[in-house]
Amino acid sequence: MTRSFARRPVLAVLTWIALAAVLVWTLWPIVLMIFTSFKPGNEIFAIPPTLTPKHWTFDNYTNVFTQSSMPHALVNSIIVGLLVAAATLVFCFSAGYALARFKFKGARSVALFILVGQLVPLSVLLLPLYKMVNKLQLLDTTIGLAFVHLTITVPLVTWMIRNQIAAIPISLEEAAEIDGGSRFDAVSYVTLPIAAPGLAAAGMFAFLQSWHEFLFASVFATSESARTAPVALTEFATEYHVDWGSTMAASVVLTVPVVIVFIALQRYLIGGLTSGAVKG
To answer: How far apart are CA 131 and CA 126, in angstroms?
Structure first.
């Protein structure tokens, strides 16, 4: 591609212009959110508008951390996200391994049926899930919300892990069994270490899906004790007034952990999402 650009400088310039336009289009809302979070209330809708604050203030962040339930909601989001990531990896690795390794009648149909679950609108699942969670007496708890979030993560992550395991030669496991190990040993000492980057990506995907989910969280965790951060954002809006400064500050607080996790694990995420992409 580099040689092609060297031969066609116009194409290279147009490509860089297109990439710059996409970058600005993507980052502009984030930049606006960050600068607005440091503006006092009288500057947010000032005419003419300005991008950067004339008077920088941390009052919006102080309001978020002292006058709202956002700190407790962030803890709840972390708890729910970790529960969802752990449960998703346990369930989906078992299912994905079985679909990739065991040959049985209807295996492909079962795999496709699981993926169809990803296509069902979440609003359709609200009533049956509400009855199930209420029956289990997990309504308005972080565990109940994590259970509900599994319906979002399990279908796609099962397919992700299935493809990753299918890309690992089964001869490696057979070699471990020939050396005297059981299938459990082969999976534990051969398959799991090789699939670790993909599993890390799958766990991160599940955590992020739970982290920013709003619909289920607003229905299944309504009290302050179980409320998650996306729902807590609504505290800054009333029927007649929206505190945009605090809303933007809370949005920054909600975004920063995700960015840190992504930067720390981006190598595993990219490697995990691309591994097994050819062999299905």
So the answer is: 9
The type of residue at 241 is: H
Cα distance between residue 40 and residue 112, in whole Å: 52
CA distances from 170 to 78, 101, 173, 275 (A): 36, 8, 5, 16
| Residues making up the chain, counted from first to last | 280
Q: Quick check: 272 pLDDT over 80? A: no
Q: What is the mean pLDDT of residues 243-260?
A: 88
pLDDT for 18-58, tens place per residue?
999 999 999 899 899 999 999 988 888 888 888 889 889 99
**Can you spell out the DSSP letters for 158-184?**
HHHHHHHHHTS-HHHHHHHHHTT--HH
Which residues make Cβ contacts (< 8 Å) with residue 69, sequence separation at least 6?
224, 227, 232, 235
* CB of 211 closer than 8 Å to CB of 231: no
Provide the terminal-to-terminal Cα distance of the chain, rounded to the nearest Å: 28
